[in-house]
Design goal:
Structural class: alpha+beta
Oligomer: single chain
Distance between the termini: 11 Å
CATH topology of the domain at 2-93: GIY-YIG endonuclease
Number of strands: 5
Helix content: 40-55%
CATH architecture of the domain at 2-93: 3-Layer(aba) Sandwich
């Protein structure tokens, strides 16, 4: 399942059109807000920081079942029809389609050149990786793992039947993954 959505700035009318295969779309919207607050330099995220989250109206333009069609056909269609101001690409490609000027490339390179790595330098990261190989988290003792296993043994999980294809499975997995994605579900 996919959705093509539009975020419109209610102050100046500028908009952004995006695609997501994450349903419900509120998680994708939260992701935009989080990236904006982390300092992402895209036009859309800069606008969220400048005008505030409450200055944007979010709406779904289109929903469908095939994410590839949504990403490669429907999102570019809506971008070409509505010509949103905050989109930096023609859609379907994420940030891959952004073309940076030579000046921008030089500025980024100069700012990163000569920087010291943080406290986890390459040798320290490699040593940490070797040290952690084979460890599980949380590092429970053998007795603790046995008690957890004994406590879960014999638990009865509720099984459900898909009304579309007849598949059975645990209620949590079927609800989360199967029901909305069942290939036999009528459109």
């Amino acid at each position: 399942m996919f959705a093509v959505y539009q975020a419109t700035n209610i102050i100046n009318g500028d908009s952004y059109i995006g695609f997501t295969s994450v349903v419900p779309t509120k998680y994708r919207w939260r992701s935009h807000i989080q990236r904006a607050m982390e300092g992402s330099p895209t036009h859309f995220h800069c606008a969220i920081r400048k005008y505030g989250v409450e200055s944007f109206k979010w709406e779904i333009l289109e929903e469908g079942w095939d994410p590839e069609i949504g990403k490669n056909i429907r999102e570019p269609h809506w971008i070409s029809v509505l010509n949103p101001e905050y989109n930096e690409t023609k859609g379907g490609d994420g940030s891959v389609g952004i073309v940076r000027s030579e000046e921008a490339k030089k500025k980024t390179g100069d700012s990163l050149r000569g920087r010291k790595r943080g406290p986890l330098s390459l040798s320290r990261r490699n040593a940490h990786s070797i040290k952690m190989t084979g460890k599980t988290y949380p590092p429970y003792s053998v007795e603790r793992r046995k008690r957890i296993g004994d406590g879960n043994r014999g638990r009865v999980h509720k099984k459900v039947l898909c009304p579309h294809c007849g598949a059975t499975g645990g209620i949590n997995c079927m609800t989360r993954w199967h029901f909305n994605n069942c290939k036999r579900k009528p459109l």
